[in-house]
Automatic annotation (TrEMBL), chain A:
Source organism (scientific name): Luteipulveratus flavus
GO biological process: cell division
Membrane topology of this protein: Peripheral membrane protein
Assembly description: Homodimer. Forms a membrane-associated complex with FtsX.
PANTHER family according to UniProt: CELL DIVISION ATP-BINDING PROTEIN FTSE, IMPORT ATP-BINDING PROTEIN
Function: Part of the ABC transporter FtsEX involved in cellular division.
The encoding gene: ftsE
SUPFAM superfamilies: P-loop containing nucleoside triphosphate hydrolases
Protein name stated in the entry: Cell division ATP-binding protein FtsE
Family listed: Belongs to the ABC transporter superfamily.
Gene Ontology MF: a single term: ATP binding
Ligase recorded as keyword: no
Gene3D superfamilies, A to Z: P-loop containing nucleotide triphosphate hydrolases
Keyword annotations: ATP-binding, Cell cycle, Cell division, Cell membrane, Membrane, Nucleotide-binding
TrEMBL record, chain B:
Function: Part of the ABC transporter FtsEX involved in cellular division.
The name this protein goes by in its record: Cell division protein FtsX
Species whose genome carries this gene: Luteipulveratus flavus
Organism phylogeny: Bacteria, Bacillati, Actinomycetota, Actinomycetes, Micrococcales
UniProt entry keywords in alphabetical sequence: Cell cycle, Cell division, Cell membrane, Membrane, Transmembrane, Transmembrane helix
Location of the protein in the cell: Cell membrane
Length: 239, 306
């Protein structure tokens, strides 16, 4: 679903690369954590996948498309297949919960009856049924992140990227959000979570991709945040 | 994007940025007003020139039954014999006389009606008062005096005149006004373009989260850009309509009003009227539309990447 092949990314020519010769592959329907300290390259990885930035060298393939050769007019179509969630939620403050989620379908030109059906269904999925009329500022942090997740998945993307989704939340709420992401993964969506939250990674024991100063230092099928049970191979597989 | 959703986004956007919208409306109104004034001054020159200005240098007006003031018209209206005499005298002056046009009283009245259609004096002019005339094109316009001396005071000739002498001062003034207002219009158009650019950047900044989300979920460039373009078009079109209103008021209460207050003089020169404002109005609207679309499109291409 997502394949990086010897990807290097430099934001400026002199500085150290944000990603340094990273090769990895995420299969369809997989659930993975991308871990590492701040500045290790997690967000850069996400940006490359949604084609916000273009890799300096190496190839990025998303859903079979080589992003180096992707013409500009096809970028929106690529992004329609990817949902993104951020640490700071990024909700539209002047719209209700329902309007925030419906907004996505509206800008994508979906028909009204489709929106009428999909929005409540999605709010139900993320556990916000009955809160559609609330404004974002009336909600707790965990609830706001649920709205953000609903907004990301309402268009039924094949891939869900979450960049520090629990960064602003307490441990208990974080656990709930991760359970929600797992639930979405079970519907067939490929989920990639960038985080430096030890507890959620350790609890779930799923695939862990670890970056350090832009280099891939660990990629194991099942693991915790810190435990280095195996070292990465050049093919991105597990020893 | 569904039409209804887009419209509600646009209305919402306009309401949230009232001050910006008003400034775009005003600056486009002022620039289009100057542009329109320049065009009207240009049309004024054309209107005042009338039918003969560019064709002939000398007009020989023949006596009518009413022209008793001139001694050469003591016998009343010009007779057929006098007319033929003048015609053959003119013909004998070739090659100085390049061409001779004859305008009958009826033709003169028709042209007068057309040229002075905006004048309140039109109704008070009697058909019989319109003199018939010979209009003469000279091979050398500077030898105008020879024609005057040959025909001034001849039997059946009421007056010999060179319309250019009368009109040229007026035209010089109008040309200066016209160039001046077009120059101001250009300055104001530059202001409009800069203001529209700044406004779009400002509005795009205030909506950066919304635009960011639109990009992220895969909205096409058209869907992201369209509200900005439509909002700019609406603002400049309102400006254009106000400018047309101002031009109308200027012509209606200024130019035409001047005539009705009858300080004299005005009747000598045919003036632009409301019909001329309506004639240039579509061009001002088209100009405003093109200005808005091109400016916003270029700005968005530069500052709002998708």
């Amino acid at each position: 679903m997502i394949r990086l092949d010897a990807v290097t990314m430099r934001y400026d020519e002199q500085g150290a690369p944000a990603l340094d010769d990273v090769t990895l592959q995420v299969e369809r329907g997989e659930f993975g954590f991308v871990v590492g300290a701040s500045g290790s390259g997690k967000s850069t990885l996400m940006r490359l996948v949604i084609h916000e930035k273009v890799a300096t060298s190496g190839s990025v393939l998303v859903a079979g498309q080589d992003l180096r050769a992707l013409p500009e007019r096809k970028v929106p179509a690529l992004r329609r297949g990817i949902g993104v969630v951020f640490q700071d939620f990024r909700l539209l403050e002047n719209k209700t919960v329902h309007q925030n989620v419906a907004f996505v379908l509206q800008v994508l030109g979906k028909r009204r009856h489709h929106i009428k059906q999909m929005v409540p269904e999605t709010l139900d999925l993320v556990g916000l049924d009955g809160k559609g009329d609330r404004m974002p500022h009336e909600l707790s942090g965990g609830e706001q992140q649920r709205v953000a997740i609903a907004r990301a998945v309402v268009k039924k993307p094949a891939i869900l990227l979450a960049d520090e989704p629990t960064g602003n939340l307490d441990p208990e709420t974080s656990a709930e959000i991760v359970r929600l992401l797992e639930r979405i993964n079970k519907t067939g969506t490929t989920v990639l979570v960038a985080t430096h939250d030890h507890s959620i990674v350790d609890r779930l024991q799923r695939r862990v991709i670890e970056l350090e100063n832009g280099k891939l230092v660990r990629d194991e099928a099942v693991g915790g945040y810190g435990a280095r049970t195996s070292r990465v191979t050049t093919t991105g597989g597990v020893d | 994007m569904r039409l209804q959703f887009m419209l509600s986004e646009i209305v919402h956007g306009l309401r949230r940025n009232v001050a910006m919208v008003v400034s775009v409306v005003l600056v486009s109104m002022v620039s289009l007003f100057f542009l329109g004034s320049g065009l009207l001054a240009h049309r004024q020159v054309d209107t005042a020139k009338g039918y003969w200005y560019d064709k002939v240098q000398v007009s020989i007006f023949l006596c009518t039954a009413q022209s008793t003031d001139a001694p050469s018209c003591a016998d009343g209206a010009v007779s057929a014999g006098q007319r033929d005499q003048i015609r053959s005298d003119l013909a004998s002056l070739e090659p100085l006389v390049d061409r001779i046009y004859y305008e009958s009283s009826d033709q003169a009245y028709t042209r007068f009606q057309d040229q002075f259609r905006n004048s309140p004096y039109l109704g008070s002019v009697d058909r019989a008062a319109m003199p018939e005339s010979f209009r003469v094109k000279l091979s050398d316009p500077t030898r105008f005096g020879e024609i005057v001396s040959a025909f001034d005071g001849a039997p059946g000739v009421e007056a010999v005149s060179d319309q250019r002498k009368v009109l040229d001062t007026f035209f010089n003034l109008l040309n200066v006004l016209s160039i001046g207002s077009v120059a101001l219009a250009v300055v104001m158009l530059v202001c409009s373009i800069l203001l529209i650019t700044t406004t779009i950047r400002q509005v795009a900044f205030s909506r950066r989260r919304q635009v960011g989300i639109m990009r992220l979920v895969g909205a096409s460039a058209t869907v992201i850009h369209l509200p900005f373009v439509v909002e700019t078009v609406i603002a400049t079109m309102i400006g254009a309509v106000l400018a047309i209103g101002l031009l109308w008021a200027m012509v209606h209460y200024g130019v035409s009003g001047l005539l009705e207050n009858g300080s004299g003089g005005g009747g000598l020169i045919s003036l632009v009227g409301e019909a001329d404002v309506w004639a240039i109005a579509p061009w001002l609207l088209v100009g405003a539309f093109v200005l808005a679309v091109v400016t916003s499109f270029v700005t968005l291409r530069r500052y709002l990447r998708v």
